[in-house]
Amino acid sequence: YPSGNLAIIVTREGDQLTCTVQEDEPRSTRIRALFQSDGRSTCYYPNGDEWINMNIQGGQYLDQAGSRVRRWAWPNMSPGLHVPLKPIFISLNRHVGIRILAQDKIIISFLAMGRQAKFNMGIKVQVSGSTQLRAPAWLGEDELLLLAFRVRILQLFDRMRACINFPSSEQWSKMQPPAYLLTQAAKVLEHCAATEMSDELGSSIRALVKL
């Protein structure tokens, strides 16, 4: 950002690429969006609530109360859900915008000081007529809640290690969470979005894994 704060970070863990968009804040690593090369992506409202969630089969758009506004399926991915995508554009802040045009056209745009950079984090998946993708494994409410608590505990342990290794709060408060924690948090949110549950439980789970 013009302020000097990191805006977009791309990391690699094995064959997995992760693109993270951070908020323009000097003492925070608040995540505004997370895009993964396996097709899973999540965008967040400024308060940390889930805004858009996507996976290899489709996606959904939520309002700030957590209610589903729109849901879609990528072509030939989910035979039981014939809802096409209508192009989506959202502004994470005054510098970063997201355009979702197709599964292989998910564009992150960064504009500052008269210059623009674009990242395409979409993927193209080819599925033969005799092959269908399996839906993500279903998890019950109790299992999801336990998984969310596990992610939260790992987050707290990571924060404790940062406090010990970097006593200055100005240093550890700026540190990026490990990629595996971002991935696990995104998995919990993905399962949460695909599971029918009460609004209260969904809000509790999202609050637990919020980074």
TrEMBL record:
Residues 1-174 form the FAM194 C-terminal domain. InterPro entries: FAM194_C. Pfam families: FAM194. PANTHER family: GLUTAMATE RICH 6 (PTHR23093:SF18), SIMILAR TO CHROMOSOME 3 OPEN READING FRAME 20 (PTHR23093). This is ERIP6 protein.
